[in-house]
Amino acid sequence: MIPALLSNYAPADLSFEKGEGPYLYGNDGRRYLDFAAGIAVSALGHAHPRLVAAVTDQASKVWHVSNLFRIPGQEELARKLVDATFADAVYFCNSGAEANECAIKMVRKYFSENGQPEKYRILAFEGSFHGRTLATIAAAGQDKLLEGFGPVVEGFDHVAAGNIEAVKAAITDETAAILIEPVMGEGGIRVVEAAFLRDLRKLCDEKDLLLVFDEIQTGMGRTGKLFAYEHAGIAPDIMSSAKALGGGFPVGACLAVEKVAKAMTAGSHGSTYGGNPLAMAVAGAVVDTITEDGFLDHVVEMGNHLKQGLTGVVDRHPDVFEELRGIGLHLGLKCKVENTLVFNTLLKHGVLTAKGGDNVVRLLPPLIIEDSQISEIVEKLDAVCEELEDG
């Protein structure tokens, strides 16, 4: 007999009974410092009063009606996101993968509507991650994601990030867009240089291509800006968002400039659950909180403090860690030992983290952390390193 639950995950033998702020309380009776945040999802921590109030209030009214009817919460949240970003319109869905699927469809529909259906290929980058659907694993192009799921969805080409000449050489008459994560999270917290992002924007303008940013993990304050594109001083034409947008409630969004949004006419795309009243109430509370005066300043301050502390850990334990990567509270430690070993030892010491590519342990705490939690993680990391060094 196989388990009733599909065995596509290999979770740690640990579950949680409740959470409060940056902490989770396990079924083993222990308190854990959460520096994974559900993989950059629980940006406001656990049981945030504002989110609890939003979901409780909406749950007593209406959960779901479908997009056959107007949903005022969608219109309100779309206006907030448009006012806070480059975008002119927003589509709501349930996940990051769905947001990226929408972005891919937007690219193709835009050129089709403008009499260039031959322009459909998207240039993406090696080591990227865009979701688990057939199209998004093709967009990432990683063998470990594609294995067993062939034939691969057509229409994606890949080059190394950071080499603008390689990008130029890969563009053909069929190229429609360039898709990139400003920070490659699953790929090991690899920060893409702002100059390279600016070069991509210039190239897209010159070649009549669309620039698409995947900000599913970097968005909603994670890097110290509402969205990471702001660090480069440019804007994409399309951007996907999810994860922290709902603060733990499943919701995604695809944002676009007017010329692209206009191509998505009635019936061209849709979702039964997407933008449901419950999701909109929670996401609206998240956006209101993160865009309040001082919130992002706090993220920057805590990010600087955490980087200082982690730099010290790397300096003190060169046999365990090779380097610190990241920006804001989107950080990663490149390991010299197996990252699984660091992950498991941290777990034993009561700290939750997330593994990433390139042998990295990702540190993705709730954006509400304070100096006390930074001191705690540094102390725990030192203890973990000493244990590993002792063998």
Return Rg in Å.
21 Å
- The helix count comes to 13
Mean pLDDT: 97
Q: List the helices and strands in order.
A: EEEHHHEHEHHEHEEEHEEEHHHEEHEEEH
Question: Would you give the CATH topology of the largest domain?
Answer: Aspartate Aminotransferase, domain 2
Please tell me about this protein's structure:
- 38% of the residues lie in helices and 19% in strands.
- The protein is built from 13 helices and 17 strands.
- The chain has 2 domains: 16-34 and 294-389, Aspartate Aminotransferase, domain 1; 50-290, Aspartate Aminotransferase, domain 2 (3-Layer(aba) Sandwich), CATH 3.40.640.
- The protein has 391 residues and is α/β, with parallel strands linked by helices.
- The strands form 4 sheets. The protein has a 7-stranded mixed β-sheet, sandwiched between helices. Strands 1-2-3-15 form a 4-stranded mixed β-sheet.
- β13 (321-327) and β14 form a beta hairpin.
- α2 packs antiparallel against α10 (277-290), α3 (72-84) packs parallel to α10 (277-290) and α11 (295-316) runs parallel beside α13.
Give structural attributes.
seven-stranded mixed sheet, four-stranded mixed sheet, Aspartate Aminotransferase, domain 2, 391 residues, alpha/beta, Aspartate Aminotransferase, domain 1
